[in-house]
Every structure is written in structure tokens, then in C-alpha cells.
Design goal:
273 residues, Fic-like fold, mainly alpha, Oxidoreductase, Fido, single chain, Fido-like_dom_sf
Length: 273
């Protein structure tokens, strides 16, 4: 799927994908058109990053209340705290890697894993694809694990697609990057956090969401882990219907993220946030 020139273009033509792209764009345009965005966009961005990180951590098994995430300063305690801390770091770091992504996506992925791991993994395994025989800690994704050789080949193919670019909508590229990283689980840990952060990088870097105010992670979490896994099964199956369902799921997640930030704008306008 990702070894041919503009391999993503046919995905953009799948039934229902145009509708998903249009619905997502309308939701994004709505929040960008809010009057609060003209003068307080930095506050909306900060809140979107925080809420996106909280949601990504929730999908990784650490479903904390937003105010608890906001209040905490130390995330070095129990495993859930470390997961929340990793989500906060990797989501914030994604915003600093946009200029590198189109030239060197594998370098970005390595950096995201390094930041997510935060000293909790062995130095020999951090920031590089796993080697043959290395175990993967990713309980949220239970699909069969590709071997290290397949991982390396498919990562190279994914990188070529990103560097070459595609005529497919940004949603399609973001969904494929996200789905491929979940399928491969290229690192020994934190793969799902990295995959969701990479999806954010694509949506922001494409110009669709330049201020990073539409956190798709929120939408993925709102849909729930069962719906997330079911949609991912469609990607893993690789059928046209399965791929279209995964792209639609990612589009709906971005829509819900945009709706979340619209609510933030409304709260700021009322003076409630």
C-alpha cells in the first residue's frame, strides 16, 4: 500500500472519504472562525495540547480527570502517572518537529519516542526501531506483531510517502501514519502515544490545523477504546471498506477535537476559562 508512487491517492477516492474530509474541514473552519481565535488563539492552543495529551493518556490506560492533569507537577510515581507524563511530553514535543517531519519523518518518530520514554526504557532501545527478539510493551494493541525486518521495510516505505507527498487529503495521510505506526509498533514502548502524536504532526503540518487547536486525541478517547480498536482492525485488514472506516474514524476524531476547542472558545468568551 505504501510502496508505489502516490500510494495514498486511491485511498482518497474510497467511498465515504470525501464526506469525512468535508465534515472535518467544516468543523475545523468553525473553530478557526470563532471570534475568540482572533485575540486568544495561544490560550486555545495550550488548552488543546493539554486536552489532547490527557485523552491520549486515557487511551493508554491512564484516564485521569483534566483538572488532575492540570494540577499535577510530578509524574514520576506510579505507572499511570508516568503514562500521563509521557503523553504530556510527546504531545508538546510534536509541535516543535513540524519543520523536520517532511524531510525526515523517521528522525521525528525517533525523537517522539525518546521524549515519551523519558528515561524509563533502556538507553539501548530508546529512539530506534526494535530489533529481532526485543519485546514490545503495548497492551492497548493486541494485533499480531510484525517482525523487525518487516518493521524496517514498512517504516522506510512510510517515510518515502511522507517525503514525496501525496495528492490525497491531509486526513488520509494522517490516518495512514497513525494506523501504520499502531500496526508496526516499531518501538519497544509508547507506540500508541507516538502514533497519535504523529497524527497531530500531519494535521498541523499540512496546514489543515496550523495552530494545533483540533486535538484528534480527544475524539479518539471520546469514541472509546473499543471503537478505536475496531476501527484499527479495519486498517489492519487492509480492505477498501476497512481502510475507509479507519479514515472515517480519524476524521470524526478530528471533528470532535475541533468541537472540544469550540467549547473552550465559548468558555473563554464567557470568562469561564
Amino acid at each position: 500500500m505504501i510502496t508505489k508512487p502516490d500510494a495514498l491517492a486511491p485511498l482518497g477516492a474510497l467511498p465515504g472519504v470525501d464526506d469525512s474530509v468535508e465534515a472535518m474541514r467544516k468543523a475545523v473552519d468553525r473553530v478557526y472562525g470563532h471570534r475568540v481565535m482572533r485575540r486568544r488563539s495561544a490560550e486555545v492552543t495550550s488548552e488543546a495540547v493539554l486536552r489532547g495529551a490527557r485523552a491520549s493518556a486515557a487511551l493508554a490506560g491512564a484516564d485521569w480527570a483534566l483538572e488532575e492533569v492540570r494540577r499535577r507537577t510530578d509524574f514520576s510515581g506510579d505507572p499511570q502517572a508516568r503514562t500521563v507524563g509521557a503523553a504530556l511530553r510527546v504531545t508538546a514535543e510534536a509541535g516543535h518537529l513540524l519543520s523536520v517531519w517532511r524531510q525526515s519523518p523517521l528522525r521525528v518518530l525517533a525523537r517522539l519516542h525518546l521524549v515519551a520514554a523519558g528515561g524509563t526504557d533502556s538507553e539501548e532501545t530508546v529512539g530506534r526501531p526494535r530489533l529481532a527478539g526485543e519485546a514490545v510493551d503495548e497492551p492497548a494493541v493486541t494485533a499480531p506483531l510484525p517482525d523487525a525486518e518487516e518493521v524496517a521495510a514498512r517504516l522506510d516505505g512510510l517515510a518515502r510517502v511522507v517525503v514525496t507527498g501525496s495528492s490525497a487529503p491531509a486526513l488520509v495521510t494522517a490516518a495512514v501514519v497513525h494506523g501504520e505506526l499502531l500496526a508496526l509498533r516499531p518501538f519497544v514502548s509508547h507506540n500508541a502515544l507516538v502514533a497519535r502524536a504523529a497524527e497531530r504532526v500531519v494535521l498541523v503540518g499540512s496546514g489543515l490545523d496550523p495552530k494545533s487547536i483540533c486535538p484528534a486525541e480527544v475524539g479518539h478517547a471520546e469514541a472509546g477504546p473499543d471503537a478505536y480498536r475496531e476501527a484499527l482492525d479495519g486498517y489492519l485488514a487492509g480492505t477498501p471498506a476497512g481502510m475507509a472506516a479507519w479514515i472515517a474514524h480519524c476524521g470524526r476524531a478530528a471533528e470532535l477535537g475541533a468541537r472540544e476547542s469550540t467549547a473552550v472558545c465559548e468558555a473563554l468568551q464567557r470568562g469561564a476559562a
